[in-house]
Structure formats: C-alpha cells, structure tokens
Here is the input.
Amino acid sequence: MYEALTKAILLEDARVAGDVERIRSSHPHLSDAQVGRRLTRSAGLRCGVIAAVASAGEPVLGRLASTADFSFQALSLIRLAQSIALAHRRPTTLLERGGAAAAGLILAGAASTVRRGTGQAARWLSWRNTQFAPILSALAGGAAAFASAALLGRLVEQYLSDRGRWRW
Here is the structure.
C-alpha cells in the first residue's frame, strides 16, 4: 500500500488521465465541472461496491477484508482528487497531491470506522435475526464509502472553483 500511495502522490497516474479521457470522449458536451461530478459518482460507486462486499465478508474474513478495503479506498480517493483536477485542466502541485492524499486517508479511515461500528451492530442484530446482519453491514459499509467519495469530490471541486486560494 505504501509504495502505491507514494507513487500516487509523487507521480501522475496514467489511469487517472484515461478515466478523464474516456468520459470526455463519450460525452464531449460536458463542462469541466460535469466531468468532475461524473468522475466522483463513478469513484463513489466503485468504492461503495468494494466496501459493501468487504463489510458483508468481514465476519468471515476478519481484518483481512477491512485491510484490503482500506487500501483500495485510500488509493481510489487520491486518484479521484487527481482526476477532478485533471478534468478542470489544472495541474496539481506536490503539496496539493499530498493534501489530497491526507484527505483520502482520513476519509477512508472514517469510512472504515463507520463500517466497524455497523459490523458491531450487525453482530448484535445477528443474535436476534441472523439473516439481516450481512445485509445491514453491506449497506452501511457501501453508504459510508460512497459518502466519503462524494465528500472528497465536493471538497476538491470547491478548492478548484476558488482557484486554489485556500492555503494548505
């Protein structure tokens, strides 16, 4: 995870440019902000699905599921921030990429904490009705991951609309 995180901060990722170009080529009429929102929605859905699967499988796989999910979420959120900046045709500085990485790690950690809490609640519910525990866990995990991607997307959009007047 650390090697991929370092590469995401220090280097521009080719997948980021590919995602932006794929959306621009299939929807040439979209503005930069609309492309950013599509990227946010796509990343949110990806993060939500992976988190839902990891949350539902956590009772069986334990920490392995949450560890793999945290790595995926953090890297996806970092790439989301970079792709939104690229969609706005704005190069990012090393400091901005580092700030995006910090925000991605914080939001991935918060989503992981929410998933663990819902996992505890699901285990409590499983004493009463075992059928709904994995479903509740998956829904809460997916919603937390989608919300973290949406929040990061909104923060990056706001930062870019202020033309980088925020000071890190």
In short: The radius of gyration is 17 Å. Residues 2-161 form one domain.
